[in-house]
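To: structure subgroup
Subject: Chain for Friday's discussion

All,

I'm putting the inputs and outputs inline so they're searchable in the archive.
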Amino acid sequence: MNSVNAVRAYGCKQIATFLKDRMNVEIGAARTKESRLITSNVS
């Protein structure tokens, strides 16, 4: 594998990880928002 392909593969991996982390953060935020709405409706 030449260095250009190595760098490209590394970059793609970094981006994929970054996107996955952001998705998790956004999902987590949405969940907390939902649970807050539910708790406020219950009380």
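Points worth raising on Friday:
The chain has a mean pLDDT of 90.
Helices lie at 3-42.

D.
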